């Protein structure tokens, strides 16, 4: 696996060669309105985030085996109250599908089903389960909690946002 610096160099080389992906009009419009991903995360509507994340975060695009370690690292870096919010949102959506927090606690081996008492490892397990088994719920929660996305560093995840970043960077040359 390439180091972070090697990956950045590879992306920059590809961008310099014009190797970009056509993200369509919707994403073009998004890049005109937001200067950075943090700006996008803070000011965008849930629908805009859902539109972007809906195409990006799916086991068909990023295998669970690659997403799980990234989720673990990202969740460990977010604030505890944000972790609680992510767990709470997952439990709420899963409960609407008939899965109780208690049954998920047992099934996934969580230390608690109470979001306030869950560890980062517990939220990672829950996130991985949702990503793999209920990608639509995962996308919804990410649209509600976009701050977690900035902590994902996997080259595949980065590549999804690479073309958007290139447009943002290109405007500031």
Q: What is the helix content?
A: 55-70%
Q: How far apart, in Å, are the first and last alpha carbons?
A: 30 Å
Q: Care to count the β-strands? A: 0
Helical run tally: 10
SSE ordering: HHHHHHHHHH
The rough form would be described as: globular
Helical/strand content category: mainly alpha
Plain-language structure description:
The protein has helices spanning 4-16, 24-33, 37-43, 46-56, 64-77, 80-95, 101-108, 120-133, 135-144, 155-171. It is mainly alpha-helical and 173 residues long. It has one domain (23-171).
SSE arrangement:
Elements: H1 4-16, H2 24-33, H3 37-43, H4 46-56, H5 64-77, H6 80-95, H7 101-108, H8 120-133, H9 135-144, H10 155-171
Helix pairs in contact: 1-10, 2-10, 4-9, 5-8, 6-8, 6-9, 8-9
Output the keywords.
single chain; 173 residues; mainly alpha
What's the quick description here?
With 173 residues, the protein is mainly alpha-helical.
